[in-house]
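Collaborator request, handled under Task 6.
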Amino acid sequence: MKIAVVGAGHLGRPLAEWLAGAGHDVLALARYSFFSHPQPAISPGPRLVSVPDFEDLERELQVFSPEAMVVCWAPGSRDPQDYRRVYVEGMERLMTRDFPDLRHAVYTSSTSVYEDLEGKVDESARLAPRGEHARLLLEAENIFKSGMERLGVAGCILRLAGLYSADRPPARASLQKGVPLQGHPGDLVNLLHREDAARALALALEKRLCGVFNLADGHPIRREELYVAAAKAFGLPPPIWNSPVAENTREREITPAKFAAATGWRPEHEAAQLGL
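Structure tokens returned to the collaborator:
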């Protein structure tokens, strides 16, 4: 199958290599800066193509004419303008194009669209994006859905919990800044290992899933426990919290049960057992 991976970065690159290793014809697209640090690829590997702007991306997709597409791009910063440019404006441009051979597409969103909810959260939960970033992600989801309807293509949205990997462990970057941390130390944090996410995306393509699915390891960890363990593992000062101790904790647990039932997927990594 001809598969385009739009956003061959932290998640998209290993996914593209996985798919190519399974025998698919894979086109992996990413910003030029990513390829300044190449990683070993599975042989035969995906075709890695630099796309510094949207015009290049659109041209490569039109020439390749994918049968399936995974959109897992991400902005280079947390600036809301970057979020809007990549997620909203990028999706608008992508969904106005015609892909005559496309039969299935998967878009990776975020569980932050449930930002203000408590308790166990599945796909039937109301959407409660609190901040600008989450609202932009939800806007991009709606654009994707409309685009899939216009194209007559089966579309799948995977809402991912916080992504981490051995080369990008949770908490380390925040601790290295040495500034007080946001959020209550007692909050539950939902995480997902990159390898588990890549396997899930491959399964979503294989099963041609349609609809919305949550993805997390199903074992949330207390924020304080996570950060204390990270500080110890990386030889960094213990965390300092910016929030008052009296503030209520957030007890949100993202459940991936729907996706697991549809695909047989089970996470192989649990953040609560990291050992960091």
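The cover message to the collaborator said: "Residues 33-42 have pLDDT under 50 and may be disordered. Residues 104 and 216 are 23 Å apart (CA to CA). Please let us know whether this matches your experimental observations."
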